[in-house]
Amino acid sequence: MPVMGFLLAFISAVATAAGEDFRVDSSRLASQDIILGSRASCSFSFSFSSSFSSSFSSCSSSSFCFSSKEEANCAAETRRWQPPRLLARNPLIYVIDNFATKEECLEVFNNSHGRMESARVWKGSMGRESQNAAVRSGLTTTLNKPAKWTSVTREIIERMDAATMMPHAVGQYLQVTQYDVGDSYDLHRDSSIEAARTLTAILFLEEPEEGGELIFPWVDDLVSGPVAGAEGAPRKDAKEILASGKLPPLREVCEAGLRVRPVQGRLVVFRSHDLMGRLIMPHSLHGSCPVRRGVKRLAQRWYQWHDVHSNNLLGELISQTGLEPSWRVKPK
Ligand SMILES: O=C(O)CCC(=O)C(=O)O
């Protein structure tokens, strides 16, 4: 290993020991924005101390060969986690751009490699899943084997917990989805009183060249203009939609409502229930417009209001009131 490389690695290790690494930790959440380093490609910045000997000897594999080009790449790959920006108040929807680097997005997707299958939808009550290409098309898988998660997947999950302010124990396994040209997901809600998915976090892993917007046709109290690639005007027929229970076809709603571009590295967070547990309907209804060109990929994590391994006590209590069918936020 060249002497210069060793010196830089040493300095880096000292900086790591002094807390100068780029991992998200709770103390950094106090600052306005958080610098994220790409662990996969900039490993010299902080993996040195734990893997000194193996990395030292694997200089030829590049992680510890400090050419100026590599340093420049690392600098370019170091992203700033943009402060959360509010898109709507009902349901609460916010985005965080540059939440993950391109390399991290790729690695999360690769973590699902070989396990993707045709997307399915829940039908009726929880426990019955069916395939209905007219409602949802594309490929999907659930990363339900923590032992197989890479460190990047693990860290993205931790970051999602931080960004949503939700405890780890209430988060469901990451679901990874791919939409190819023509694939879409019709209007739906993510939750019910039984499903108890109070909040959704979606990380876009790959942006299609055209189409594939995440659409919320009936958001209420839209905040206009804070984010490029997230615009539109909500439809005005929320009351009628709720009363009739009939949803217009996706192609019609893709022309209106809040349209969020699936920008690579962008995290979108939204609520499906208000703080009393009421379903935010029809405002939280959303869908994925058809991909016209390219591929759309995402990883999403649903957060329940109870520990994923415990009973849905609130759901049971709401059911006991007999109010369940109308346990909804009423449109104004
Ligand atoms: O594709 C999207 O942007 C949204 C996906 C979605 O709503 C879901 O999988 O439940």
Ordered list of secondary-structure elements with their pairings:
Elements: H1 3-17, E1 34-36, H2 52-57, H3 68-77, E2 79-81, E3 85-90, E4 92-96, H4 102-110, E5 117-118, E6 121-122, E7 129-130, E8 139-142, H5 151-164, E9 175-179, E10 185-188, E11 197-206, E12 210-211, E13 214-216, E14 220-222, E15 230-231, H6 238-244, H7 250-253, E16 258-260, E17 267-271, E18 279-280, E19 286-288, E20 291-293, E21 296-304, H8 313-321, E22 328-329
Parallel strand pairs: 18-22
Antiparallel strand pairs: 1-2, 3-4, 3-14, 4-17, 5-8, 6-7, 8-9, 9-21, 10-19, 11-17, 11-21, 12-20, 13-16, 13-19, 15-16
Residues 177, 185, 190, 202, 214, 262, 286, 288, 298, 300 line the site of 2-oxoglutaric acid.
Sheet/helix structural class = alpha+beta
| Apparent shape | globular
CATH domain class of the largest domain: Mainly Beta
CATH homologous superfamily caption of the largest domain:
q2cbj1_9rhob like domain
Helix content: 10-25%
How large is the count of helical segments? 8
Q: Distance between the terminal alpha carbons, to the nearest Å? A: 68 Å
Would you list the SSEs in sequence order as H and E? HEHHEEEHEEEEHEEEEEEEHHEEEEEEHE
Number of strands: 22
Bound small-molecule species = 2-oxoglutaric acid
Mean pLDDT: 77
* Secondary-structure arrangement, i.e. CATH architecture of the largest domain: Sandwich
| Biggest sheet statistics | 9 strands, antiparallel
Biggest sheet strand order reads 5-8-9-21-11-17-4-3-14
CATH topology label of the largest domain: Jelly Rolls
List unreliable stretches of 5+ residues. Answer: 1-76
Strand composition percent? 25-35%
